[in-house]
Design brief:
The protein has about 325 residues and is of the alpha/beta class. The chain has helices spanning about 70-75, 80, 90-100, 110-120, 135-140, 150-155, 170-190, 260-270, 295-305, 310-320, and strands spanning about 25-30, 40-50, 55-60, 100-105, 130-135, 195, 250-255, 275, 285-290, 310. It folds into 2 domains: about 25-205, Nucleotidyltransferase, domain 5 (2-Layer Sandwich); about 220-328, BRCT domain (Rossmann fold), CATH 3.40.50. It is built from 10 helices and 10 strands. The strands form 2 sheets. It has a 6-stranded mixed sheet, with helices on both faces. Strands 8-7-9-10 form a 4-stranded parallel sheet. This is DNA polymerase III subunit epsilon.
Length: about 325
């Protein structure tokens, strides 16, 4: 059975410059029954940090999903372990207090935010979070020399020991310990923190009945038929490389659920001069997915071809500054 780790010693908060608007951070990790919109949270770990990134408190809970726990071989939480755990509505108030008035920090933050937001929505509540920060995006903006986007790689870069991967409390601890030096690097180097507004699931119309028609790949209830897009006027300049901007003409494929309406996401990419590809091939510049380990056809092809992969949050950041095509 997985259990919380002993309380770590918390250093006294440092004096010095604060965190801009004075808000602290809630570094969060959740383990879930799966990656889909109907999956449930089964454990949650939260480390509270002050505006300077110093740890001030932590909290952990198991959550009874009242259903099959999913991939036990990953998270180690069996039905027997979770049987006596509280349900999400029973821990929602305490969870909310751990998040309130803080920036939510997570590794692949969009995933954690959507899972948390859905659970609050099911309980008839709204998660009290206005902004999130994805450490995958921050690591990219800092141009850290990482081999991939895994938390273990980020931990190794900063010399943080990971005791028990896929344990929500330990993953949150590791992330809290790597976030502080990342925050210091960003501030000393003048790198803006990649803060993203959090839109609650209820604002996206998840529970509304979708009109009849083909399934959409987003969480918005609005359905629009696929439309033929004009051909991209720029030739493909090749693959995107981490640390570089997107370049007009790059072929971008999108797979899986997206928090942003899929049509709107594709519109933004098209308007920026990118080519939206319906499949992944050796010519694909980039795959956008919030589930890089999924078994969708596009994700499998991306792994086979070594196609670069980024999450939705990182893609939205990249769309802010798309470089002009060299031949333009």
């Amino acid at each position: 059975m997985y259990a919380p780790f002993p309380n770590p010693p918390f250093p006294a908060p440092r004096t010095g410059p604060g965190g801009g608007d004075g808000r602290g951070f809630a570094v969060v990790d959740v383990e879930t029954t799966g990656l889909g919109r109907s999956d449930r949270v089964i454990s949650a770990g939260v480390y509270q940090l002050d505006p300077d990134g110093e740890i001030t408190d932590h909290w952990y809970t198991l959550v009874n999903p009242e259903r099959d726990p999913g991939p036990v071989w990953i998270h180690g939480l069996t039905s027997e372990t979770l049987a006596g755990a509280p349900t999400f509505p029973e821990i929602a108030a305490e969870f909310a207090e751990r998040l309130r008035d803080r920036v939510l920090v997570a590794h692949n933050a969009l995933f954690d935010w959507n899972m948390i937001s859905r659970e609050f929505s099911r309980a008839g509540l709204r998660a009290p979070v206005e902004q999130r920060l994805c450490t995958m995006v921050l690591a990219r903006d800092l141009r850290l020399p990482l081999p991939n986007g895994k938390l273990s790689s980020l931990a190794a870069h900063f010399g943080v020991h990971q005791r028990q991967a896929h344990h929500a409390l330990d993953d949150a601890r590791v992330l809290a310990e790597v976030f502080r030096p990342s925050l210091e690097l960003a501030r000393s180097g003048g790198v803006p923190l990649p803060l993203t507004a959090c839109v609650a699931v209820t604002d996206l119309g998840e529970e509304a009945a979708a009109p009849a028609g083909p399934a959409r790949g987003s969480w918005s209830s609005s359905y629009r038929p696929s439309r033929k897009r004009p051909a991209c006027p720029y030739p493909n300049p090749g693959r995107w490389t981490d640390g570089s901007p997107l370049v007009q003409g790059m072929r971008v494929a999108i797979t899986g659920d997206t928090a942003t309406d899929r049509e709107l996401l594709e519109d933004r990419a098209t308007e920026a001069g990118l080519h939206i590809a319906s499949s992944v091939s050796r010519l694909t510049s980039l795959l956008v997915t919030n589930e890089p380990g999924s078994w969708s056809g596009k994700a499998r092809k991306a792994r086979e071809y070594g196609t670069p992969v980024v999450g939705e949050d990182a893609f939205l950041q990249l769309l802010r500054e798309v470089a002009p095509h060299p031949g333009a």
